[in-house]
């Protein structure tokens, strides 16, 4: 199957979903004034890794190593999400369960597990659909691809800045 524009748009749509999750985390951080915990920051780094792998597909063409980067970042992020789920699975009597407010009945780290699992599944499905060859030098990115790529770059940079503002050069507490 040739790599037509639809596959690049699907790749960009997947990237937009993960960017939306990071924007939601920003809303919790700045809108609801809930500072992220260290495990939350590590999960964000996993999502940034997923975005980077998907962005490499749009910029350099589909390649199995780009999908491997997505899957590796998603596995690492899922590991941190599952760790946090397990920390809060049996709350102490009389204390609130979980960290932060719930969103549609689940905490953000529980949603993280689902986002990372969907990233692995989506990346694996896309890998079966694409033809691994470098894009033609004449391939023009769609406006959608360009907007999503620049939005993703902005959100990733904002995450780095906000994490540095929160933690400086030392460990986060």
TrEMBL record:
GO terms for cellular component: membrane. One of its GO terms (molecular function) is protein-disulfide reductase activity. Keywords: Membrane, Transmembrane, Transmembrane helix. It is a multi-pass membrane protein. GO terms for biological process: protein folding. It is found in: Membrane. This is Disulfide bond formation protein B. It comes from Bremerella cremea.
């Amino acid at each position: 199957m040739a790599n037509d524009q639809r596959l690049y748009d699907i790749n960009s749509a997947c990237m937009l979903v993960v960017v939306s999750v990071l924007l939601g985390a920003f809303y919790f951080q700045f809108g609801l004034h809930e500072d992220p915990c260290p495990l939350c920051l590590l999960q964000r780094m996993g999502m940034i890794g997923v975005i980077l792998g998907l962005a490499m597909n749009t910029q350099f063409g589909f390649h199995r190593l780009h999908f491997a980067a997505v899957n590796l970042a998603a596995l690492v992020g899922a590991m941190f999400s599952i760790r946090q789920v397990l920390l809060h699975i049996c709350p102490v009597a009389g204390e609130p369960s979980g960290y932060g407010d719930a969103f549609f009945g689940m905490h953000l780290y529980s949603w993280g597990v689902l986002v990372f699992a969907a990233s692995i599944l989506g990346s694996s499905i896309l890998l079966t659909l694409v033809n691994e060859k470098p894009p033609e030098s004449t391939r023009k990115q769609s406006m959608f691809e360009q907007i999503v790529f620049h939005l993703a770059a902005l959100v990733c940079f904002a995450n780095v800045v906000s994490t540095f503002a929160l933690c400086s050069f030392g460990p986060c507490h």
